[in-house]
């Protein structure tokens, strides 16, 4: 599933924050869905889809924009705009922390499997990657190795988006573990190439090229991407 557009909305009432996330995702060729999540503070209250059956991109955009308008009519505003306004009014000398949404996601990941929240840990893990929360890295690494392949896949992908070379050893171990499902190993390899320090990254890319058929190796190093199209 590929995220195409996302709107993160926030409603502040009496000092309490409510968040409404709307995602437009591509799930296949000419197949799109619109999903939503509603948070009250750090608790996930509701999540679902506006498109039980995948629709065309044009229809999905209409559904997406209609839902955004309806939430704005209720008083929701773009979460980033609210954060910027809050920071500008708090003074220039004050160090900005995480915005409420990112803090809620980080808190859920920090709770790990001990949380009584209905917010699935795999959803929070994936959000760490979508929102690029570097502070989550050590907690994501700590969640690895539960035997839940979907969770491990989400963790590896998220580390590729927000991790550093500090998690390279763990990602490399997953990629090389023959007992790990192939999909998890592949995403771990992708994430490893994203976070590895320059010398290691160059070697990893060279290794990938060496695994290609001989007639494609030269194209991978010097050719154009269009030449790989079948």
Task: Describe the overall structure.
This protein is an alpha+beta fold. The chain is built from 10 helices and 5 strands, in the order ββββαβααααααααα. The chain has a 5-stranded antiparallel beta sheet. Helix 6 runs parallel beside helix 8.
Keywords:
five-stranded antiparallel β-sheet; 10 helices; 230 residues; alpha+beta; globular
Order of helices and strands: EEEEHEHHHHHHHHH
Report strand %: 15-25%
Strand order of the largest sheet: 4-3-2-1-5
The number of distinct β-strands equals: 5
Task: Summarize the structure in short.
The protein is of the alpha+beta class. The protein is 50% helix and 19% strand.
List the helices and strands and how they pair.
Blueprint: E1 2-13, E2 16-28, E3 31-40, E4 43-49, H1 57-73, E5 77-78, H2 79-89, H3 100-111, H4 121-130, H5 137-142, H6 149-162, H7 168-176, H8 182-195, H9 198-210, H10 214-222
Antiparallel strand pairs: 1-2, 1-5, 2-3, 3-4
Helix pairs in contact: 3-4, 4-6, 6-8, 7-8, 8-9
């Amino acid at each position: 599933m590929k995220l195409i557009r996302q709107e993160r909305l926030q409603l502040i009432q009496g000092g309490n924050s409510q968040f409404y996330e709307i995602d437009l995702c591509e799930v296949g060729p000419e197949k799109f869905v619109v999903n939503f999540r509603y948070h009250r503070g750090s608790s996930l209250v509701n999540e679902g889809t506006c498109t039980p059956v995948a629709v065309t991109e044009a229809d999905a955009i209409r559904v997406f924009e209609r839902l955004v308008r309806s939430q704005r009519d209720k008083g929701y505003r773009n979460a980033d705009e609210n954060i910027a306004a809050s920071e500008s009014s708090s003074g220039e000398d004050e160090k900005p922390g995480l915005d409420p949404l990112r803090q809620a996601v980080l808190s859920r990941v920090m709770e790990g499997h001990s949380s009584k929240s209905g917010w699935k840990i795999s959803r929070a893990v994936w959000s760490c990657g979508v929102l690029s929360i570097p502070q989550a890295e050590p907690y994501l690494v700590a969640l690895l190795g539960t035997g839940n392949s979907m969770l491990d896949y989400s963790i590896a992908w998220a580390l590729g988006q927000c991790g550093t070379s500090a998690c390279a050893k763990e990602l490399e171990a997953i990629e090389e573990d023959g007992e790990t499902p192939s999909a998890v190993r592949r995403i771990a390899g992708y994430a490893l190439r994203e976070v590895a320090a320059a010398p290691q990254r160059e070697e990893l890319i060279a290794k990938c090229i060496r695994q290609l058929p001989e007639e494609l190796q030269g194209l991978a190093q010097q050719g154009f991407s269009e030449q790989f199209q079948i």
